[in-house]
């Protein structure tokens, strides 16, 4: 008799378990259709010519002129270069904020030997500074070079943590920490 009671209990539990699996929530996802998406807005698209942009000269207050920094202008003066302090490689090593003709970026100047100077890494800089591959100190000047060893910019120290000069194409450039 004990086998019959065990068999009846097993069949009862199996039947109860199967009865509980009749819910939709246990059915596979592939058999249920997803909820419909809301419709996208509809309409017509038109095309018109945009008016020409207004000229900054038409409304000068819209684009005020940036103030010139005296140290930057003075560093471009040949007499200021003669009075500039000597520069050491240790004073140049590090990461600099760069301003090239009004555009900002960063340049890393580690003391890792590279060619006849040290490796340099421009970080999202505009041309021509985006092509800087190395730097070196030449007396009172800090010079940046491209991959061919051509000078891209020359700068002079214009104070603690600051260099000013110009690119070979004549754009003003300044470095600051």
Automatic annotation (TrEMBL):
Assigned keywords, A-Z: Cell outer membrane, Lipoprotein, Membrane, Palmitate, Protease inhibitor, Signal
Signal peptide: 1-21
Region (Disordered): 27-72
Compartmental location: Cell outer membrane
Primary location group: membrane
Segments of skewed composition (Polar residues): 56-72
Pfam family, one: Inh
InterPro entries the UniProt entry points to: Inh/Omp19, OM_lipoprot_Omp19_bac, Protease_inh_B-barrel_dom
Top-rank lineage group of the source organism: Bacteria
Domain Alkaline proteinase inhibitor/ Outer membrane lipoprotein Omp19: 87-177
Similarity comment: Belongs to the rhizobiaceae omp19 lipoprotein family.
Protein name, per record: Protease inhibitor Inh/omp19 family protein
Species per Swiss-Prot/TrEMBL record: Nitratireductor rhodophyticola
């Amino acid at each position: 008799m004990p086998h019959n009671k065990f068999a009846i209990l097993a069949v009862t539990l199996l039947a109860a378990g199967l009865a509980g699996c009749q819910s939709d929530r246990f059915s596979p996802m592939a058999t249920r259709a997803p909820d419909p998406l809301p419709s996208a807005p509809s309409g017509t698209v038109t095309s018109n010519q945009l008016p020409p942009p207004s000229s900054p000269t038409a409304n000068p207050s819209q684009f005020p002129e940036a103030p010139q920094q005296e140290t930057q202008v003075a560093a471009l003066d040949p007499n200021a270069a003669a009075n500039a302090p000597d520069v050491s490689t240790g004073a140049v090593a590090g990461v600099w904020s760069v301003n090239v003709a009004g555009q900002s970026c960063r340049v890393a100047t580690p003391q890792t030997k590279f060619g006849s100077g040290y490796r340099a890494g421009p970080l999202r800089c505009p041309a021509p500074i985006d092509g800087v591959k190395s730097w070196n100190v030449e007396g009172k000047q800090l010079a940046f070079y491209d991959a061919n060893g051509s000078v891209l910019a020359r700068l002079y120290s214009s104070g603690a943590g600051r260099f000013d000069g110009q690119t070979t194409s004549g754009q003003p450039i300044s470095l600051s920490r």
